[in-house]
């Protein structure tokens, strides 16, 4: 079982020579989405964010996957999500709706479902034949039994996130691409376990041992909610 630090190390190595371009895209991402938030006061901010969030998030996933798969980071990669505007827009809308519905039950189910949907944009990128909702459901299937591992991976970045706060957010332009690349590596690992790719750039094997970052047993896979959608009223 690959541990969180192995995903981080793999992402760090792949980002060598790509940090600057990824940080630039993160800056543009923040400025575009932040401008939508700033325009909430005149009533159009929500619409702007809704229109750009899906394509920009898909672009971030595309950029991260390309880097993890050994390609040189190019700024235009981050805007390829706009070439698939309809599916990425619908996916962002669906994830927002379903996560909000589960959060109405209690905050924990909402968090659990956000991890269930965590691979949706990567799947959308790799499977153009799927609809947005099918990509969401495919993410739920792929993350079944793996949500705790994904949570541990995110938790392993807590020190870096604290440094982002100490630098007034400036460091986040480098840390967020780092975390996204680690998540992309996690996605690659899940795909390799379900259907190994002959051309996949594999992560180094890790001997099984007890580690603080190792996931909890399968039964502890955050069982706060089932894998089904909330019942319709």
Summary of the model, kept short:
This protein has helices spanning 4-14, 19-38, 45-68, 85-105, 107-116, 120-126, 132-143, 147-155, 158-166, 172-194. It is mostly helical.
Order of helices and strands: HHHHHHHHHH
Indicate the low-confidence ranges by residue numbers: 196-233
Large-scale geometry: globular
Describe the main β-sheet briefly: none
What is the rounded distance between the termini? 41 Å
> Which secondary-structure class do the elements indicate?
mainly alpha
Count of DSSP H/I helices: 10
User: How much is the average pLDDT?
Assistant: 82
Strand content: under 5%
What share of the residues lie within helices? 55-70%
Number of strands: 0
Over all CA atoms, what is the radius of gyration? Answer: 18 Å
Describe the structure in your own words.
It is a single chain. It is globular, with a radius of gyration of 18 Å. The longest helix is centred in the N-terminal third of the chain and has 24 residues, at 45-68. The chain has ten helices and no strands. It has 233 residues and is mostly helical. Helix 1 crosses helix 10 (172-194). The chain starts with a helix and ends in a 39-residue tail after the last helix.
């Amino acid at each position: 079982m690959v541990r969180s630090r192995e995903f981080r190390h793999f992402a760090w190595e792949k980002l060598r020579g790509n940090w600057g371009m990824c940080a630039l895209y993160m800056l543009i991402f923040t400025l575009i989405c932040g401008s939508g938030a700033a325009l909430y006061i005149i009533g159009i901010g929500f619409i702007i964010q809704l229109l750009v969030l899906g394509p920009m998030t898909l672009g971030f996933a595309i950029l991260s996957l390309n880097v993890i798969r050994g390609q040189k980071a190019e700024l235009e990669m981050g805007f390829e999500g706009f070439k698939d505007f309809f599916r990425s827009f619908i996916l962002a809308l669906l994830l927002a709706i379903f996560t909000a519905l589960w959060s109405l039950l209690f905050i924990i189910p909402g968090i659990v479902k956000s991890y269930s949907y965590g691979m949706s944009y990567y799947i959308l990128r790799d499977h153009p034949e799927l609809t947005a909702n099918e990509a969401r459901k495919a993410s739920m299937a792929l993350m079944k039994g793996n949500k705790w591992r994904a949570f541990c991976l995110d938790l392993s970045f807590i020190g870096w996130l604290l440094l982002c706060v100490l630098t007034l957010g400036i460091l986040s332009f480098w840390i967020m691409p780092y975390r996204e690349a680690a998540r992309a590596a996690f996605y690659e690992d899940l795909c390799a376990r379900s259907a190994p790719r002959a051309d996949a750039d594999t992560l180094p094997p890790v001997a099984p041992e007890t580690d603080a970052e190792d996931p909890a047993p399968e039964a502890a896979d955050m069982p706060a909610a089932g894998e089904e959608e909330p019942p319709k009223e």
